[in-house]
Here is the input.
Amino acid sequence: MSNKSIDRRGLMLVISSPSGAGKTSLSRKLMEEFDDVVLSVSATTRDPRPNEEEGTDYYFKSRETFQQMIAEGAFLEWAHVFDRFYGTPRADTEAKLDAGQDVIFDVDWQGADALHDQMPNDVVSVFVLPPSIEALRDRLAKRPGSTPENVDRRMADAEKEIRHWRRYDYCIVNDDFDAAYSQLRRILLTERMKRLRQRRLEPLVRGLLGEG
Ligand code: 5GP
Here is the structure.
């Protein structure tokens, strides 16, 4: 294959963190730096918001279609949240991996577990931790629209999420953004070199051994 980017199978970079720990900014920067890193596009039964586009933000589905897709096993994982369904399409993910794209999943620990169960050889999981509870509270309080009540609620949610940190392959403490980003990109670059992901190795080694 002449296209260098598809000499390898992409990986599934599953990133979780309590909200406010910096996961979204880290993911965004990775996609800015690397053309072949993309965000997973989920399917949902909720209505599109004004600025959202089909296929970019979500695949918008009717309830009936979504339920049929569940029955057909079309999702790697799915969840029922606030009476709406959300799910990760299996075929879409598989096509991206096959095309050599690394796919970022911004999911909580339950989503991370489910993805790992389905695709154990493809998932690389990263948990982003805040440097201290004060720093987390400070970041949440500085968000636009934050109120003391929603900061308290997010702090309680954060604690629940942090309890699951041991399930992840890697943990990054996001004290300094540039240092945390540098760690994340090294994880990506190293994981890309895993033997299982490098497609050229089999034919190369067959040639080296005079077997091809
Ligand atoms: P929103 O409706 O604001 O876009 O998302 C609501 C919630 O659904 C968020 O917490 C988001 O993480 C979750 N969500 C979005 N896509 C998926 C998915 O594919 N699987 C799961 N399990 N949750 C999702």
Notes: The first strand starts at residue 12 and ends at 16. Residues 42, 46, 77, 79, 81, 86-88, 107, 111 surround guanosine-5'-monophosphate (CB under 6 Å).
